[in-house]
Amino acid sequence: MSRRLVLGVLVFGFVGAVAQAGKYEVDGVHSAVLFRIKHLDVSYSYGRFNRISGRIKFDETKPEKSKFEVEIEAESIDTGHAGRNKHLKGPDFFNVKEFSTIRFKSRKVEKTSENKYMVTGQLMMHGEKKDVSCELEHVGTKSTSRGDKIGFEGHIVVKRSDFGMNFMVGKGLGDEVNIWVSLEGTKK
Amino acid sequence: MEFFWQGVGPGLISGGLMVLLGRLWRFGERDVGWASSLAVGVGAGAGYVLIRDWPGWWPRESTAVVPFAAVLAGVVGMVCARWLRGWIWGLVGAMGVGFGAFWLVTRNLRAYSWGTGEAVCWLAGLTFGVGMLWLCMRGQVGRWGGRTFAVAYGLFSAVMGGVLVLSGSAALGQLSGGLAAGVGGVFVATCWRRGVSWADGVVTVLAVVVGVLLACGYLFAEMDWYVGLMVLGGPLLGFVSEVAWVRGLGGWKLFFVRVGLVLCPVVGGLVLAFIGYSLD
What's the ipTM? Predict the structure, then answer.
């Protein structure tokens, strides 16, 4: 009887723990923020940010209680060309010495379909704050030898002019920037 | 076509304003000083709007301080040239506008990167730099006359624009080009008047805007310190033309020597910036 009770407590305890909101630290090594922008109206140029951090609070049963906070070091922009990176870091674009961090903080999380969530929040970039929405796919959750892991991926399109980045808009460089976000979190 | 207006627009605005003020006031030599100050300040400020966009009422980023600083320096220069003619007022006015501009330009650096001591040193150093620029330029505009001064510092601003472009910011370079066009516009509008002096009003605009652009280039773009010093060397080297045997050259020779002395260091800075750009 007592064995059954202990087993029952353990099973319910485990299920309860899984169902509970998990708090995760974004693993910068296994996360990525990629972007692309139209160049000369003929092709797309791609780039990425190499230093990402943040926190995820995820509750599958109550998605509205979930939270996403992501910070990106603007200085870590990397387009595979040193001269272009230097230009992008300067006052014409990100002005990284003045606005060093790109930050997203969610305000609302809604489940839209199986494993899909609409995350709405504030994106702060280049000193401007704008509300944006991004559909994130919950890629998976797993206990691994490196801890309990969770992963999300999403895509968003923003206009850089909305963030005061007007240099060469419509003069060889597009205004719309496609951004792909892939986050891996490690449970705290 | 847009690039054309961005290049010529500030000159048309400053020159047009100069002609308009001339018609309204029917001014003589004494009045040209305050009018040219206002015209160059408004021209340089309008250059920002033509090149970048309307900056919004409160400057959000460092480069957006440029149009406000230019117009305010134009007004302060106008007041000093018209009513407060003592050199000390001009110097205090330029340093005051410069300090205000640097305070805004460096606000994020002060908030997140610099300690109090570092911020005080930077603000004091930059404001002192504007004061030195003002003293150099004022000494020259009085001795050289408006035309030589306008050609020397119009070209100086244009070449400095090239330095800023090669230092990683096309926008800062364009704004320096806007300043050059503003000076050029007033030069064209006044060059037919013999014996006209720009007086010291316009010096306030030049000292403040050159100071702010160089500070932005160093602090936020990738301008190397030695390139910045080379650019600042132009106004200083201009004083070599006050040596007796150089002054003795007279006429066109003296004109070219003076313009050349101001341009030599900044062209040197352009070459160094180009070498640095090529090595990337």
Answer: 0.73
